[in-house]
Design a protein that fits this description.
The complex is a heterodimer of chains A (about 300) and B (about 290).
Chain A (H helix, E strand, L loop, with lengths): L1 H28 L3 H6 L5 H10 L6 H13 L13 H36 L4 H15 L2 H15 L12 H30 L2 H8 L4 H26 L6 H6 L5 H10 L3 H29 L1 H4 L8
Helix pairs in contact in A: 1-4, 1-13, 5-6, 5-8, 5-13, 6-8, 7-8, 8-10, 9-10, 10-13, 12-13
Chain B lengths: L1 H7 L4 H8 L4 H18 L1 H4 L32 H37 L1 H16 L2 H12 L3 H8 L4 H16 L2 H8 L4 H37 L11 H8 L8 H28 L5
Helix pairs in contact in B: 3-5, 3-13, 5-6, 5-8, 5-9, 5-11, 5-12, 5-13, 6-9, 9-11, 10-11, 11-12, 11-13, 12-13
Classes of the chains: A mainly alpha (about 300), B mainly alpha (about 290).
């Protein structure tokens, strides 16, 4: 048990290190980092100070270590456009994004999981067909198209809701719906196939052959086992909370992290981009870690001895 | 297991027999649509009524079914139908190039993992885990921020999409294939590792790889169109489907057709390929779900 979690934590640390390395390499490969971070019109003194601060006058390997150290001290450079610390800028945008992604996550879970379970239990029924068609549609319609269709329908033709921007609660409805519908469809499809796979297992047949009522078989045997793969994809959605609405924020001009990322990429505001990349990586690694712990709880086989290296 | 059957039976005969079986009408329509899209992409120069950059300033924002412009024009009087046709070409080119890169790179990594095992395998699996754990949109946006955008770089970047899936599949299948008699036999005959993998193992696992290419292809189209929609993918004067939607959105209230024509095309195309991919997977590879 301890070994299982120790390996997971080590792996998580390694993934973060990998992202930091990725950011370091990309930054070095794309030209003079001092110029990239400080901007084209930084004064030579500021550049020299920056080089010294970040240890850019030292050998590459030392620079790499310095880079690591700086990041662990939370020094992520300054925004080229705003001038303030990149980290503060990104953090200030997170609440706005969470206002969209958290309710959307609730919609995904509340709609996607029951729909997927129901479709699997009533395979080939009319509802199963309907769920699958919606799921395929939700999967092939990109979020910007869905968002724009909703805007056209509900904001332009019927004029019930604003087309975008911030303000009252009604500004939240369309972006949340856009995020929620697509994600619910993906989740329903996934839960359905996880459920079908479990329902085809011999232990389900054994359980119902023993005379256990079908509802108890589903509750006691099928659902807990189908939950294991589902936890993975839900974990991904949780990790994606802080940056999972890049496209939707752009469609609705919502001032969140996603919008900041797009604007910063277009303006090549590298410190901000790098900061968002690292935050997303940490969020992802953290949610993966939670998923792994849940795995251990849901499936004791995984944490006893077998490290599950095949996954 | 599935593998064993596939190895024993001559693989070429198997898919043919299955495809001859009744194909659902939705898959048939999907195939037809894919064929149309491919023909349009290849013959863009011949089919398009105008060049995609040609201006017709006297007919700006003309609505569809205009005598000269079937699907109307945009804010500069550029023919929407022609732009659509050239966009299809670019989008298909990017998605096809990226799928090829991703499949080759992923398969090579998978074979390398299966061949060397040990540390190298662990490293490759760790890279694959990393790729799977990070949202691709964020990774590609950061690369685009650092390196700027050019079409070959963009295709290469999209070529990283989904490589970890091929790597995992190829690794798993190559490991089980290596345990089969035929791989051992050619190795005993003195074949080099590259010959064993490329000439003997690859053909035997290709159906699984092709199915996952069909499943990844629409995702790459969506990724490309999302990035282009954000204005960070394909750059003007080139045009792609996402890029058309992105620029068309500013004229949404006055001229929604500029935006909805490419949007409809993205949806129908990805839907067709997804239907085909799902069907192929159900027929050929139960194990891939």
């Amino acid at each position: 048990m301890f070994r299982f979690f120790a390996i997971r934590i080590l792996r998580a640390a390694f993934t973060v290190a990998l992202v930091v390395t990725f950011a370091f390499l990309v930054l070095r490969l794309s030209g003079d980092p001092a110029r990239s971070i400080m901007g084209e019109d930084a004064s030579p003194e500021a550049m020299a100070a920056f080089r010294q601060e970040w240890g850019l006058d030292q050998p590459l390997f030392m620079q790499y270590l310095h880079y690591f150290a700086a990041i662990f001290h939370g020094e992520l450079g300054c925004s080229m456009r705003g001038g303030g610390a990149a980290l503060d800028l990104v953090l200030s945008r997170i609440p706005a994004t969470l206002m969209l992604t958290l309710p959307a996550l609730l919609i995904k879970l509340a709609v996607g999981i029951p729909a997927g379970v129901y479709a699997a239990l009533h395979r080939d029924s009319a509802i199963d067909r309907a769920v699958m068609v919606t799921a395929v549609a939700g999967y092939t319609v990109p979020s910007f198209v869905l968002g724009l269709v909703l805007v056209q329908l509900l904001a332009i033709w019927f004029a019930w809701l604003p087309t975008g921007g911030t303000g009252g609660l009604q500004h939240l409805i369309l972006p949340i719906l856009t995020l929620g519908i697509g994600g619910a469809a993906v989740l329903a499809r996934f839960v359905r196939s996880a459920m079908l796979e479990v329902l085809g297992q011999p232990y389900i047949r054994t359980a119902s052959a023993k005379g256990i009522p079908w509802a108890s078989v589903v509750r006691g045997h099928a659902l807990p086992n189908a939950a294991i793969p589902t936890v993975t994809i839900v974990g991904f959605m949780v990790g994606n909370l802080i940056a999972g609405s890049v496209v939707v924020e752009s469609v609705f001009s919502w001032p969140g992290v996603g919008n900041l990322l797009v604007v910063s990429v277009a303006a090549r505001d590298l410190a901000v981009v790098q900061c968002i990349l690292l935050l997303v990586a940490v969020a992802m690694v953290f949610s993966n870690l939670i998923v792994d712990f849940l795995y251990g709880v849901l499936d004791p086989r995984l944490s006893n001895g077998d490290t599950g290296g095949g996954h | 297991m599935n593998m064993v059957e596939k190895v024993i039976q001559p693989t070429i005969a198997k898919p043919r027999k299955i495809i001859a079986r009744r194909m659902p009408i939705s898959v048939y329509l999907g195939l037809l649509w894919i064929a149309i899209v491919v023909v349009v992409a290849v013959l863009a120069n011949q089919i398009a009524p105008y060049q995609h950059t040609a201006l017709d300033l006297s007919n700006r924002l003309a609505s569809p079914f205009h005598p000269k412009h079937l699907l109307g024009t945009d804010e500069l009087g550029r023919d929407v139908l022609s732009r659509l046709i050239f966009s299809v070409r670019i989008s298909v080119l990017v998605a096809l190039g990226a799928t090829m890169i991703s499949a080759s790179f992923g398969t090579a990594m998978g074979f390398a993992a299966a061949h060397f095992r040990g540390r190298i395998e662990q490293f490759i699996l760790m890279l694959a885990d990393f790729q799977a754990a990070m949202p691709f949109l964020i990774l590609s946006l950061s690369v685009l921020a650092f390196f700027g955008n050019a079409l070959p770089l963009f295709i290469g970047l999209m070529g990283l999409y989904g490589w970890e899936r091929y790597a995992r599949i190829a690794r798993g299948l190559a490991i089980s294939a290596s345990a089969q008699g035929y791989a051992g036999a050619v190795r005993q005959l003195g074949a080099s590792p590259s010959r064993v993998y490329l000439r003997h193992i690859l053909p035997n696992i290709s159906s699984t790889l092709i199915v996952s290419m069909t499943l990844t292809f629409p995702e790459i189209i969506l990724m490309e169109s999302s990035l282009s929609f954000l204005g960070l993918g394909v750059q003007p004067p080139m045009t792609s489907l996402g890029n058309m939607v992105g620029y068309g959105r500013e004229y949404m209230t006055r001229a929604p057709w500029i935006m909805f024509a490419p949007a409809a095309l993205i949806v129908t195309t990805t839907l067709s390929i997804s239907l085909l991919g799902d069907w192929l997977r159900d027929r050929l590879d139960k194990g891939l779900q």
